[in-house]
Amino acid sequence: MKDITNREDVELLVNKFYNKVIKDDVIGFFFTDVAKIDLSKHLPKMYNFWESILLGNPVYEGHPMAKHFPINEVSALEERHFNRWLQIWEKTVHENFDGENAENAINRALNIARIMNHKMANARKE
């Protein structure tokens, strides 16, 4: 297996991840019922997000944290949800890639999940 080295690799990873996550019995409903994401609009944003993080190309513009607060108000984003997101992400990375950027994708996702979990939990307390 090869490492994540270009935009095409990022798109493959994100596409395979979303194919799994939207069908997942634990967190799929966030994407389909709560946020009701339009994949044709959402996926290009995710490609840009992960390309920026993994390849250092500053193509992402946005505030990912801000997008999740309204979802958290409708249906609480809890630690178990972030853990499931991570589980699916890590499995998808390992099924398709191997190398430094692949491991970085997992580590960065772990950090993102920890921060988001903390911020969503605090927002529910306010």
Question: Mind explaining what this structure looks like?
Answer:
- The structure is a single chain.
- This protein is mostly helical and about 130 residues long.
- The protein has one domain (about 5-125): Globin-like (Orthogonal Bundle).
- The protein has helices spanning about 5-20, 30-35, 40-55, 65-75, 80-95, 100-125.
- Helix 1 packs across helix 3.
- The model has no long low-confidence stretch (mean pLDDT about 95).
- Keywords: Heme, Iron, Metal-binding, Transport.
- InterPro entries: Globin-like_sf, Globin/Proto, Hemoglobin_trunc.
- This is Hemoglobin.
Features:
0% strand, mainly alpha, Globin-like
What's the order of the H and E elements?
Answer: HHHHHH
How far is the first residue's CA from the last residue's CA? 46 Å
State the CATH class. Answer: Mainly Alpha
Overall structural domain count: 1
Main beta sheet strand tally, sense and closure: none
Q: In terms of per-residue confidence, which ranges show pLDDT below 50 for 5 or more consecutive residues? A: none
- Give me the CATH superfamily: Globins
CATH architecture: Orthogonal Bundle
Query: What is the radius of gyration?
Result: 14 Å
CATH topology: Globin-like
Instruction: Specify the structural class.
Output: mainly alpha
Strand content: under 5%
Number of strands: 0
* Fraction in helix: over 70%
Number of contiguous helices: 6
What overall form do the CA principal axes indicate?
globular
Mean pLDDT: 95
InterPro entries: Globin-like_sf, Globin/Proto, Hemoglobin_trunc
Binding site for heme: 118
Organism: Epilithonimonas hungarica
Keywords: Heme, Iron, Metal-binding, Transport
